[in-house]
């Protein structure tokens, strides 16, 4: 139960961060990506601030060794680069650059944004479902069984 | 740079980082939105609850914000619905294939010093900037 409450709190905090930083606004995100136009560096500060605090959290989690509420840390351990990582990241960037929405802001914006956000989120969920059809060895990659595949 | 909002960006960033830190220290998990959502397609039974709870937190955030007197920022979406659908499909598929998005790779992964996340973030930033340059400045969409 505590595990669920803390997940809720984390989601809430995350959503508040996206709202306060205005990252829920696709126009704001596109303003950051538009480095050849009227550039708005805000997103860099959002990410910078978030990375520093999340790094501190990582140090604490590592020092403790075990999470407060769960039996063990579920942290990705892979360090190799593979075609899936590179291709997936490249695709994600294209979609992100087309409209200015990534998964977090899209979900938060669903509740108070204009209805077309719905179209994006629905398509995003379909895209995730389609991924389930992709064989685990496509494109040619060797999967390390011992490394749990944790996604961000 | 007339749209630059450094203070609110930093405060918001710290909140997002605090969420990631809290989630890692308490639940031992990475606060990656695409992973939390996408994991619902093949969840272990014990994982459904916290995944839905995290998403519920995201959904109520606007309500909590306005309840405490906050004024929600606009959600300015210029893209057409067909383009939104195409982009949504690509984002959904790409984030699962690449095992992460802005939060999982950009915030949590880089915070851990993960080389995979650093590379992924560099790549999706680059393709996003290139895509926007092409659509906004070359084609004029």
Automatic annotation (TrEMBL), chain A:
Name the Pfam families for this protein: DUF6691
* Transmembrane portions of the chain: 42-61, 81-101, 113-134
Q: Which InterPro entries match?
A: DUF6691
Q: Which UniProt keywords apply?
A: Membrane, Transmembrane, Transmembrane helix
Keyword Membrane present in the record's keywords: the answer is yes
Protein known as? Sulphur transport domain-containing protein
Automatic annotation (TrEMBL), chain B:
Q: Name one GO cellular component term.
A: plasma membrane
Task: List membrane-spanning regions.
Answer: 6-27, 48-68, 80-97, 118-139
Q: How does it sit in the membrane?
A: Multi-pass membrane protein
Tell me the domain of life: Bacteria
InterPro entries with a match to the protein in the record: Sulf_transp_TsuA/YedE (IPR007272)
Keyword tags: Cell inner membrane, Cell membrane, Membrane, Transmembrane, Transmembrane helix, Transport
Q: Where in the cell is it found?
A: Cell inner membrane
Q: Which residues form a coiled coil?
A: none
Give the record's family classification: Belongs to the TsuA/YedE (TC 9.B.102) family.
Q: What is this protein called?
A: Sulphur transport domain-containing protein
What organism, scientifically named, is this protein from? Microvirga guangxiensis
